[in-house]
Design goal:
The protein has 276 residues and is of the alpha+beta class. The protein has three helices and twelve strands, in the order αααββββββββββββ. The model has no long low-confidence stretch (mean pLDDT 81).
Length: 276
């Protein structure tokens, strides 16, 4: 090969050698290097997140007094509404405890709610993930469910010292059992192949033939509680289409996920009180 052509091909040769060397590296060493690199860049990610919070604080300081007064009134009405919901929730919990005692039923597993700030998002075509600003320092375990006001966000995929990676329910690797609202027969939900800037969607399988849904008359898909990860009754999304499957025994369909998944700032991790 002439020297000029060799010089042009040198970067590709070096890249090929690096890739070949990486393939023969033991898996344990790869995992260690990946975790070390994540911990190394974590302070930069956290610093950027705190800087954004500080920028938002000073931007709010520029609002006029009238705007702040109006915001305070809105916040007061919202707080009053939440206080009513808290009282209603407490009475419902007491009723559930009374019925469990009467029927001698075992109590459902309880969770500790741990709010966390979102510091980074990754919505590439291969995976859909977010990074939150809490990790092992707050006792967050791998596999813990993550929720927000609109329902299910995903589950904790990786836990590091001060951060954690959350795998969104829009990721194709996520599968969970759900139920159609008003029906107790389980169906299978899986994240879809979502485009980078498109709306988040998922697919469902094993839908009973007598269930119908469309874009104009959607059905709500809820978690069933099967599998032991997500508690029952959480909103997954809206079923916008169902059609008979190839076997003719069940239907398959599409689920429209909450569009707020792509712009979350705060989430809540449900940490099991009794992990066993």
């Amino acid at each position: 090969m002439p020297p000029k052509r060799f010089d042009q091909a040198r970067p590709f040769v070096v890249l090929g050698l690096v890739l070949a060397g990486w393939l023969v590296v033991p898996v344990v060493l790869k995992t260690f290097l990946r975790a070390s690199f994540f911990e190394f860049q974590a302070p930069l990610t956290l610093s950027a997140s705190y800087a954004r919070d500080l920028q938002e604080y000073w931007s709010l300081r520029l609002h006029t007094n009238d705007e702040l007064i109006q915001a305070g009134r809105d916040l007061g009405r919202l707080t009053a509404s939440y206080e009513d919901k808290v009282q209603e929730n407490a009475s419902l919990r007491d009723e559930i405890a009374r019925l469990e005692a009467q029927l001698r039923l075992p109590s459902f597993g309880e969770f500790r709610a741990e709010p966390a700030r979102v510091v980074r998002r990754d919505f590439s075509g291969w995976w859909q993930q977010i990074v939150i600003r809490k990790g092992a320092n707050f006792g967050i375990p791998v596999g813990a469910p993550v929720i927000f006001a609109g329902g299910v966000v995903g589950r904790v995929l990786e836990v590091h010292a001060y951060t954690a990676v959350v795998e969104l329910i829009s990721d194709p690797n996520v599968r969970l059992a759900g139920v159609v609202e008003g029906d107790d027969r389980p169906v299978s939900f899986q994240g879809g192949n979502n485009p980078t800037f498109g709306p988040a969607q998922g697919v469902i399988e094993f839908v009973p033939l007598d269930i119908y849904a469309s874009a104009t008359a959607p059905k709500t898909l809820l978690t069933s509680g099967l599998g032991g990860v997500f508690p029952p009754g959480l909103v997954i999304g809206q079923i916008t289409q169902v059609e008979p499957g190839a076997d003719g025994l069940f239907k398959t369909g599409e689920v429209r996920l909450d569009p707020r998944l792509s712009s979350l700032n705060e989430v809540t991790v449900l940490v099991p009180v009794n992990p066993e």
